[in-house]
From TrEMBL:
Molecular functions (GO terms): cytidine deaminase activity; dCMP deaminase activity; zinc ion binding
Family: Belongs to the cytidine and deoxycytidylate deaminase family.
GO-annotated cellular components: cytoplasm
Enzyme Commission number, as recorded: 3.5.4.5
Repeat among keywords: yes
Residues spanning the membrane: none
Record-given protein name: Cytidine and dCMP deaminase domain-containing protein 1
Cofactor: Zn(2+)
Catalytic activity: cytidine + H2O + H(+) = uridine + NH4(+); 2'-deoxycytidine + H2O + H(+) = 2'-deoxyuridine + NH4(+)
Region (Disordered): 31-56
SUPFAM superfamilies: Cytidine deaminase-like
Signal peptide as annotated in the record: 1-29
Length: 503
């Protein structure tokens, strides 16, 4: 359903989330950033991305991964110091990867792919069947047996693969050998290994730019800088575009073609396929940079608790600002799948285990996500889509639309454990309908904007959020401590420098 506004396709949403997960501010990345800052080393990328690009001898690129089952996200992962994203997914999901689609930010290496396709071994599945069943199975039936065996589809971003081919050092030969091994594994795999990129719908980039510029987080900053005659958001956005193009796009077209041929995509090297591919990739990078800039890394602003009496205690329980901002951008991306023609809302739930796991996310693990939409299975115009400007309350949408928080809780892939810290990130203030649900589900922390706190808008109100007790609330605001200093081990961002006139 498209409705009256541009809408992001699920395939592109999963692709964008995989790229964004590659940039997850993992513990080791934060440590490396701090070390480089102390040494005064600044690479060509932004402070947020310097630690993401591996420069070890093997030229292994950090990779993001989205695990999807029945078109629902069931896992968000990224490489760690020790393990690649594909291996992490196998460790964490195991047999639950059956019939899943995997979206990688880079074409996985042979070490990951061989383990993934191993779970889809066709012969083993047939051997496990009784002889009388095999005898009457048609070829189509055998294919169904295979499809139920393991991973269904593997999609990847068509640029530099996990084992980088961009290096001119001695490791480039190993990278080419790995690419050949991947192709051989792919040809013998029953899982469909492919590139899934869809052109954005008309005006999508323009719509994302307009709504990002007007979102709660940017507007709150703008209101506190009335004398600043600068468009800091546009400047931040341009910097992000440059950084992400360096990370996710091979700038030299001929080199890009060589990489595509090496990784088995010769059919995309001829025009108009190549030019269309490049344009689709650039559009998605631009969209990602635009959404990421809507939750800017501005040192005076972040997600803080307004409880001044317990501010130090609550601060120690909160996430690092880099991680909180990253998760909020995930929610912002989800909002562009909305079925509400007026306001898109996204929500994502994470939990933090008691000990660090193998994932690049540290102790954090994904619980669920959602966006505001009509009940599953409904079609456009099945339900009213009018807002509070309509006098007739019977034709308003509020009683029918499922809120982002409600969808995140309904379709969560793991249970919320009462003994662990769980947190929900919502792009807007939770309404009175959702606040008791969040508390009742046992979620310990809420990260949100607070522009609508205490307001009542026709059929929807935001009165309960301010009175909520028993759940820690972190809203987008100026650092209430008044010190306006950088977090410990948090590098100063380009956005911060710009706003101070230093950049």
């Amino acid at each position: 359903m498209t409705g009256q506004i541009p809408r992001l396709s699920k395939v592109n949403l999963f692709t964008l989330l995989s790229l964004w997960m590659e940039l997850f501010p993992a513990v080791e990345a934060q440590r490396q950033k701090s070390q480089e800052k102390e040494e005064g080393k600044h690479g060509p990328l932004g402070d947020n991305e310097m630690a993401r690009v591996s420069t070890d001898k093997k030229q292994v690129k950090k990779t993001g991964l989205v695990v999807v089952k029945n078109m629902k996200i069931v896992g968000l992962h990224c490489s760690s110091e020790d393990l690649h994203a594909g291996k992490i997914a196998l460790i964490k999901h195991g047999s639950r990867l059956k019939n899943c689609d995997l979206y990688f930010s880079r074409k996985p290496c042979s070490a990951c792919l061989k383990m993934i396709v191993n779970g889809s071994a066709f012969e083993r599945q047939v051997e496990a069947l009784p002889e009388e069943m095999v005898s009457w199975l048609e070829p189509s039936g055998l294919q169904q047996v295979f499809q139920a065996a393991g991973v269904n589809r593997i999609s990847y971003w068509p640029a530099d693969p996990e084992i980088s081919l961009l290096s001119g050092a001695s490791g480039s030969e190993d990278a080419k050998l790995d690419a050949k091994a991947v192709e051989r594994l792919k040809s013998n795999s029953r899982a469909h290994v492919c590139v899934l990129l869809q052109p954005l719908v008309c005006f999508m980039v323009q719509f994302v730019e307009e709504t990002s510029h007007k979102c709660d987080f940017i507007q709150k900053i703008s209101k506190t800088l009335p004398d600043a005659n600068v468009d800091f958001y546009s400047e931040c956005r341009q910097e992000r575009v440059k950084e992400y193009e360096m990370l996710f796009l091979v700038s030299n077209e001929e080199l890009h073609k060589q990489i595509l041929m090496t990784i088995g995509l010769e059919n995309l090297c001829e025009n108009p396929y190549f030019s269309n591919l490049r344009q689709n990739m650039k559009d998605l990078i631009l969209l990602l940079a635009t959404v990421a800039s809507s939750v800017p890394n501005f040192k005076h602003y972040g997600f803080y608790s307004g409880n001044t009496e317990q501010i130090n205690e609550i601060h120690n329980q909160s996430l690092p600002q880099e991680v909180a901002r990253h998760c909020m951008v995930q929610a912002r991306l989800l909002a562009y799948r909305t079925e509400d023609h007026k306001t898109g809302v996204g929500a994502v739930i994470w939990a933090e285990g008691k000990s660090r796991n193998c994932d690049g996310t540290g102790a954090m693990y994904f619980i669920g996500c959602g966006y505001n939409a009509f009940p599953a299975g409904s079609e456009y115009a099945d339900f009213p889509n009018m807002d509070d400007k309509q006098k007739d309350r019977e034709i308003r949408k509020f009683r029918y639309i499922i809120h982002a928080e409600q969808n995140a809780l309904t379709f969560r892939c793991q249970e919320i454990k009462p003994e662990e810290k769980s947190m929900i990130f919502v792009t807007k203030c939770p309404c009175d309908e959702c606040v008791p649900l969040i508390k009742g589900a046992g979620i310990k922390q809420i990260y949100a904007g607070d522009v609508d706190v205490g307001k009542k808008k026709a059929d929807i109100s935001y009165m309960r959020f301010g009175e909520l007790e028993g759940v820690s609330k972190f809203t987008w605001q100026l650092n209430p401590s008044g010190t306006c200093v950088l977090e410990q081990n948090e590098p100063e961002s380009r956005e911060s420098k710009y706003l101070q006139g230093l950049y």
